[in-house]
Amino acid sequence: MHVRRVELTDFRSYERVAVDLDPGVSVLVGQNGMGKTNLVEALGYVATLDSHRVATDAPLVRVGASSAVIRCAIAHDGRELLVELEIVPGRANRARLNRSPVRRPREVLGALRMVLFAPEDLELVRGDPSERRRYLDDLLVARQPRYAGVRADYDRVVKQRNALLRTAYLTRKVGGTRGQDLSTLAVWDQHLAYHGAELLAGRLELAAALGPHLTKAYDAVAAGRSAAVIGYASRLGESLPTDRSALEAMILESLAERRAAEIERGTTLVGPHRDDLSLQLGELPTKGYASHGESWSFALALRLAAYDLLRSDGIEPVLALDDVFAELDTDRRERLAALVSDAAQLLVTCAVPEDVPAGLRGARYDVGTGAVTRVS
């Protein structure tokens, strides 16, 4: 799989730009703030319908424009797919696949499989659990696009259930009764347990599959200085089954146990939206114990593990490294270059060409204000 062409209209700093890409290595060179990251961000948006840099779509639209458009031609197995996304802040985005509208943008997920590593990924190690859940869920969808629907259904149920609990909480605050406003809570419990069990089972299977790939990737990046370990940390307990029915029963039981606390706090306290990934170096958790270099290497290993896992599934994803080599010493640069040199398509951004190891000097593009020019 590779991106053959990407066109942007009113996306970030670009009023209009088109870039033709080849398989193999492409290096995007430009000073900071010129738009290198905007290009890989746009491709990442096609792959996940989300930005790795911001939580909302509004910053993706160029100042003064009402919407942004991403067009991406993807070559795979002798066929070409054209994905078009229109980003309209405050309204539902629109998507087209091979020029035909689709009912929901998520129907284009799977057209482009991509693994993107960026400086923001340090938050995978040091940030909130939401960052690690997002990493896991994005990879889950990349492997099996049907999980986009599972994820959306679960999020919808949590939102509705939280609204019910919040209304009940506010009603009691002004002297109302408890039972009147919670009559449908049992129905939402069933929905949450059903969709939550499906999402949780997928996450558990994925975390187990990632383990060997993470250990291998960290060992390669850090030259065997410690062993990286990943696990799934659920509020339901340890050593959970992957059977959907068993998980559904466990969620329902936990909901019953936490009912009083949920009513008291006005929010849903049970379910995979409360879970986390456990990341360790040796016997110690990475968060709070790992150095900056170890944290950076661990975050990079998480992305490389995702890349290797997709490849082991028979999926050849696009790999993008955004300003990565500037953060690595010479030895780690060379080790990383050896790991990714055989990628079907590798996109590298840098401010200084010399930061990129010689083995990754492929096609070069100069990125200036609002323009991208191929120079070699």
From TrEMBL:
Keyword field: ATP-binding, Cytoplasm, DNA damage, DNA repair, DNA replication, DNA-binding, Nucleotide-binding, SOS response
Binding site for ATP: G30, Q31, N32, G33, M34, G35, K36, T37
Organism domain of life: Bacteria
Gene Ontology molecular function, alphabetical: ATP binding; single-stranded DNA binding
Pfam families noted in UniProt: SMC_N
UniProt keyword Iron-sulfur, yes or no: no
Sequence ranges assigned to domain RecF/RecN/SMC N-terminal in this UniProt record: 3-351
GO terms classed as biological process: DNA replication; DNA synthesis involved in DNA repair; double-strand break repair; SOS response
DNA repair recorded as keyword: yes
SUPFAM superfamilies: P-loop containing nucleoside triphosphate hydrolases
Location relative to the cell: Cytoplasm
Gene Ontology CC annotation, any one: cytoplasm
Family: Belongs to the RecF family.
Free-text function comment from the UniProt entry: The RecF protein is involved in DNA metabolism; it is required for DNA replication and normal SOS inducibility. RecF binds preferentially to single-stranded, linear DNA. It also seems to bind ATP.
Cited NCBIfam families: recf (TIGR00611)
Name used for this protein in its record: DNA replication and repair protein RecF
Protein source organism: Actinoplanes campanulatus
